[in-house]
């Protein structure tokens, strides 16, 4: 009996050492990796992007149309990580919002960034109420603000242009947050669902849109991807977040043609699945 007890104790101690050693090893490699990672997640007909900065901050932009975002986060974040430093809701349409509701319930979130919209919708109300109950208050954002992400990484807000006009949009897509991530000598532009009219206002205000990577607006719709707008961005790489065989006919062929005329390499979640960018010192590695 004593021998059996001794064996059990040895097995328990060995298990503790193994688990502790594994956690230490994972933690070491986690903190040693100083690259920027951007994951464009295949969540069907919707948007969801996860950013892991060189300073190991986790930023989620939109959450897609359902709870598939939870599976994606569990895959791309370390098993021991239940933290999101920033959640950005570009605008509260269902295909950007729904997944964030369950994310709010399950993750420790430090900050939510959105627009101060007077928008009545059951899903948006649920999102705001959960955030309020967890003492996470939505921080309104607009052009001119810059979020410092450490280690020479910045997220610059390019739109909405002014906070006082945010509730005057007749099209909610035009209230989308447009942000440019400047990190590791690469600029990535996230455009939400902005359309051509609002896009034109951005570049007519002489705001520098030039970027290396573009998250194509509104799933590749014709609205939001005029040749003029795309030429001001002049991206080398474009990612279209879009659902396979969607009822809207996204992406629009004219948008695809404009990108091809600009010699932009196109990636699509409906064809390529999840698309991962590993970026270090101006070099981009792409996996899917």
How is this structure best summarized?
With 288 residues, this protein is an alpha/beta fold.
What is the mean predicted local confidence, pLDDT? 90
Total helical segments: 8
Shape: globular
**Strand order of the biggest β-sheet:** 6-5-4-3-2-1-14-15
Question: In the CATH scheme, what's the topology name of the largest domain?
Answer: Metallo-beta-lactamase, Chain A
Provide the CATH top-level class of the largest domain. Answer: Alpha Beta
Proportion of residues in β-strands: 15-25%
Q: What does this entry look like structurally?
A:
The protein is globular. The protein has an 8-stranded mixed beta sheet, with helices on one face. It has a 7-stranded mixed beta sheet with strand order 7-8-9-10-11-12-13. The chain has 288 residues and is α/β, with parallel strands linked by helices. It has 2 domains: 32 residues; 254 residues, Metallo-beta-lactamase, Chain A.
Give the topology, please.
Layout: H1 2-32, E1 36-40, E2 49-52, E3 58-61, H2 68-76, E4 83-88, H3 94-106, E5 108-114, H4 122-133, E6 138-140, E7 146-148, E8 154-159, E9 178-183, E10 186-190, H5 196-204, E11 213-215, H6 227-233, E12 237-240, H7 253-261, E13 265-268, H8 269-272, E14 275-280, E15 283-287
Parallel strand pairs: 3-4, 4-5, 5-6, 10-11, 11-12, 12-13
Antiparallel strand pairs: 1-2, 1-14, 2-3, 7-8, 8-9, 9-10, 14-15
């Amino acid at each position: 009996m004593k021998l059996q007890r001794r064996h059990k104790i040895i097995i328990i101690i060995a298990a503790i050492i193994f688990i502790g050693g594994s956690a230490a090893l994972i933690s070491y490699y986690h903190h040693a990796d100083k690259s920027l990672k951007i994951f464009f997640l295949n969540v069907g007909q919707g948007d969801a992007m996860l950013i892991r900065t060189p300073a190991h901050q986790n930023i989620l932009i939109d959450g897609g149309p359902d709870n598939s975002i939870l599976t994606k986060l569990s895959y791309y974040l370390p098993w021991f990580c239940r933290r999101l430093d920033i959640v950005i809701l570009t605008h509260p349409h269902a295909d950007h919002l729904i997944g964030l509701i369950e994310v709010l319930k399950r993750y420790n979130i430090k900050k939510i960034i959105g627009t101060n919209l007077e928008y009545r919708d059951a899903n948006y109300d649920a999102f705001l109420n959960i955030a309020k109950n967890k003492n996470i208050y939505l921080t309104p954002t607009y052009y001119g603000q810059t979020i410092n992400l450490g280690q020479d990484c910045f997220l610059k807000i390019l739109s909405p242009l002014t906070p006082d006009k945010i509730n005057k949009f007749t099209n909610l897509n035009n209230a989308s947050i447009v942000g440019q991530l400047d990190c590791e000598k690469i600029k990535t532009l996230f455009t939400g669902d902005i359309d051509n009219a609002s896009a034109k206002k951005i570049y007519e205000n002489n705001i520098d849109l030039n970027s290396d990577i573009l998250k194509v607006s509104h799933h590749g719709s014709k609205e939001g991807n005029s040749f003029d707008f795309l030429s001001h961005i002049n991206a080398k790489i474009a990612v279209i977040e879009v659902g396979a065989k969607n009822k809207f006919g996204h992406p629009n062929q004219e948008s695809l043609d404009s990108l091809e005329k600009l010699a932009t390499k196109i990636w699509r979640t409906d064809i390529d699945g999840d698309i991962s960018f590993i970026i270090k010192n101006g070099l981009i590695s792409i996996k899917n």
